């Protein structure tokens, strides 16, 4: 078998000793309030929304009208407020502390963005209103597109992808369309470094490609010899993250671009890590054919507990005309949205299709625009410099107590592995959980897959020196504690979080994916 | 720069600690030719005041839905959203957290996702639901791929009355996956006879209800016909509020239900972010083939109930090229808005909201179709209906806009070149007042 | 006949023309808690080294290869509801499939107990 030993312990080792816990009568613990599911309140006759009284007109649904209840509980406004505020307090957040999740760019989310996105002229506009009534919306899309193209030195950007992975799909479909147009549909092999994010191989497959892994060299970058050996006339593209998922700039990127082009393939760049170089390096100057942005990373539209994102995707001259529908164009003084194939063809385009209903994540565009206008060209450059500076500072401060995976400097994130925990009985997972007790969100762990027990730390530019210093002090202390044999501090962690370690094995073996009345009676 | 805490003194001290003499040295791996000398050719930074002024100006070039009598639907609907929803989703702990990968410090997000999944399942009459997709259209495409995996077949039939954007997004997703997709012909006011002739090798039939023209349908015969051939019925909705009054797709035999959740909690947003709802049967083969994230219940080391993301081996971060979908970031915060709004509504509020939307639409349809030359094409509908006009509907919509009424979507915008130039799709919701209806009726009379 | 092992941590025990196979105790230990096993369909023919099944723990999925060529004649469907059996009795009740061997000579190149013990040291 191809043994994948990331099967780290997924169920807590410590079975509780009921006597040892002085639980409260209410189940709450001070500010940490116990909060049942809304369904367990059984409030079925209540509602927190008042309406005018319906006239009681006879419905025209006939037999399609529902007669029984759905079983959705309702809450009055005070009850709802309390429920969601109580639950919110069980979450960590950027606004609470440093959130060093590598590859995720957890930077400050300016509240001006939120205010701008809520202007009624942006938030309360329908995507199918007459085009004459949404000129401002088109203008904003056009303006943001201009910024994205300028920052990358690329001729086109497709705005409709809904998140990073959706942008990957956009870029790779454009590549597929370009290959088909060239009569080279037989090119199906996509080269993907083993350090790649999981969305890369998953996306390639959704475009009908298959993946061929390129190993990393000892310096954490693409192994050029291995890469060149894999080139051939069945290669469609390389999907390369730059800076890569080890937090390193691919030094040979120009050579990689030239080689893939020479072999007849395209260069897809995963732009998830663009925060390291935004305003300082333009991917178009590096030979990139397609790259998605994660506006929710680089340009601070909030992560919102898992989304929404936005994944505009820049395309090179070779791919531009295959960009998906719809897109905005400016004609004289007014803007127009090109929505259908015939119209697009009349503009000389050959869109590979439509990816979504409507036009993309407008709410994220306004937030990103607000962020970018606020920073300006100078601020964006300064932001990426500070992000890189913070990461290198952490690397420098921790390199002697933890084990950096690669020599030298890093970009916007610093990668460590678990060699410093050797023989301590503490794993990367334990170390991460101990960070929770110290008041920090853990770094990205066990990713990328190229090093053992990976710990990927991305501080972003939003941290002050004092904040980064406190963080380093804490990690230093934890590393010393692990080496000094304070194993319990780690294996029993977290002890001070709203929940102890959760039994993920049980969750997966006997999935309970929703509340049911029977389960709550039992 | 107000968002950057490092001072020049900090920077200098940090560079010294790192052991380099300038920031440029940190970028030494960037090829010399690709390093920019100065900032890119874009304006310099701006104060809050300046940004606000600029963006407000741009926003004023749009007509907001609340500024005019508003009847635009066809996949996105204007409904009332309680103020508490927008307040709650802006709490830092929800707004500025990541995907709940560390369950010990993400129980807030995880429990709301678990509640969301339960509400979606209840609303659709299905057994389980996932933690959301990007939107209704991508959910529809993913459902077709899922049906192909479940049935191990590679053909799908789309109803012609499925929202054309949904059909297009589905085509795009399936384009390179060796899946053959057949589009039935559209039939405003009726339904293509999709049940009549389902071949034996079809994975699924996809039917929207209410359909894009607003007409409602009994899905039961279609479900039966599909099941007889071993195919699945995928039921699609674009107006979640319709389920406040209508029989659930689950009760009519659907196997997978997908739809757009924007009507509840999210708002119009010029088309995004919205929230894709995705529900199905509780069958192992279904669950294991679901795209996207799932929150599940478990216990912590103290035996207390808690929630985690589960069954992740379906997903890209573990299964990579064999994942059920490439989706990673989904519609997190929009699921929260949705679940808060739904918790406030409950059965009672949702039914009232649906009833009001239905009543207003009925009244409006009667009044508009009484205008000479106007014909109501859809005889049974929820809150959206289609009119045949004596004039080109796109021109009428523009003329109505000039009179300050946003009067619906010309069918030709969704079906260009299909000969629907005289069809207008009109939606009403609880937000429409009597005077909105009066204004629409008067304006249409004038325009025609 | 005694149990044979592959270097990829599958075991097979053959009686007559039929073999029963699974993953080794060592592999089960390394994987951690098994939460699901995806088994092939009965009647499928496999060549030695083909992907035969997938074992999932919470955070990982591992492919299991056919130790020998042949036809699948039975699968251990009890694992669907009780994947933990793979951890509890990997080389007993936690078996995966029964195969009708098409080439018994393939067994000769495989490891015996002692050799496998050495291999996993
Ligand atoms: C390197 C990399 N690529 C792609 C993605 C996918 O982006 P999204 O989650 O926006 O779909 C991510 C984010 O998780 C990532 O870190």
Please characterize this protein's 3D structure.
The complex is a heterotrimer of chains A (522), B (448) and C (121). With 522 residues, chain A is α/β, with parallel strands linked by helices. Chain A has 2 domains: 112-370, Aspartate Aminotransferase, domain 2 (3-Layer(aba) Sandwich); 382-503, Aspartate Aminotransferase, domain 1 (Alpha-Beta Complex), CATH 3.90.1150. Helix content of chain A is 34%, strand content 10%. Chain A has a 7-stranded mixed beta sheet with strand order 1-7-6-5-4-2-3, sandwiched between helices. In chain A, strands 10-11-13-12 form a 4-stranded antiparallel beta sheet. The two termini of chain A are 40 Å apart. The mean pLDDT of chain A is 95. Chain B is built from 14 helices and 13 strands. Chain B has 3 domains: 8-49, no CATH class; 65-81 and 346-447, Aspartate Aminotransferase, domain 1 (Alpha-Beta Complex); 83-340, Aspartate Aminotransferase, domain 2 (3-Layer(aba) Sandwich), CATH 3.40.640. In chain B, helix 8 (220-228) links the parallel strand 4 and strand 5 (232-237). Helix content of chain B is 36%, strand content 12%. With 121 residues, chain C is an alpha+beta fold. Chain C has one domain: Beta Barrel (OB fold (Dihydrolipoamide Acetyltransferase, E2P)). Chain C has helices spanning 25-31, 78-81, 85-88, 113-119, and strands spanning 3-5, 10-15, 18-23, 34-38, 45-46, 51-57, 61-65, 70-75, 97-101. A 6-stranded antiparallel beta sheet of chain C has the order 1-2-3-9-8-5. Chain C has a 3-stranded antiparallel beta sheet with strand order 4-6-7. The chains are: A alpha/beta (522), B alpha/beta (448), C alpha+beta (121). At the A-B interface, helix 1, helix 2, helix 3, helix 4 and helix 5 of A face helix 1, helix 2, helix 3, helix 4 and helix 5 of B. The structure holds pyridoxal-5'-phosphate. Residues 103, 163-165, 197, 199, 241, 245, 270, 272, 294, 309, 311 of chain A line the site of pyridoxal-5'-phosphate.
